[in-house]
TrEMBL record, chains A, B:
Keywords: Membrane, Transmembrane, Transmembrane helix. It holds the Pfam family MtN3_slv. The keyword Nucleus does not apply. This is SemiSWEET transporter. The chain crosses the membrane at residues 6-26, 38-55, 61-81.
Amino acid sequence: MNENVLGIIAGLLTSGSMIPQLVKVIKEKNADDLSSGMLIVLISGVSLWIWYGFLKDELPIILTNAFSVVVNVTLLIYCLIYKNK
Amino acid sequence: MNENVLGIIAGLLTSGSMIPQLVKVIKEKNADDLSSGMLIVLISGVSLWIWYGFLKDELPIILTNAFSVVVNVTLLIYCLIYKNK
């Protein structure tokens, strides 16, 4: 299989696995299941993967981790909003 | 920064972010917060990243995703055990 296609599929699966969590938080307006500390660790790691992707010039890593940052930052924002209520 | 060191740190942060979840499940003997479907998607994605790592011959990707498979397969096993009770 083409490496880039493989990387994009891999990245969609790993980034996409957080989407049901995001949908659940938005629907239930409740983020008690989530740890904001864990999300901050995850966002840091994903951001470093983007940096790694730039150093290695690997588009699948950059694109899918950028998507993951968007999903997880959104989760973190909801987490902070709902926990302050 | 050395690319391999960067990749290992990035991978430890992203893989490690699931460990608090694992500890919580083991302590509380409860996996109601977890979706086994989500874990299967995540494990599939992480396994494809390992394949990608082998194709590109990138050790940080192989090692950190292998660690992630171990953590998430353990979570899935606990998930299946506790949900059948």
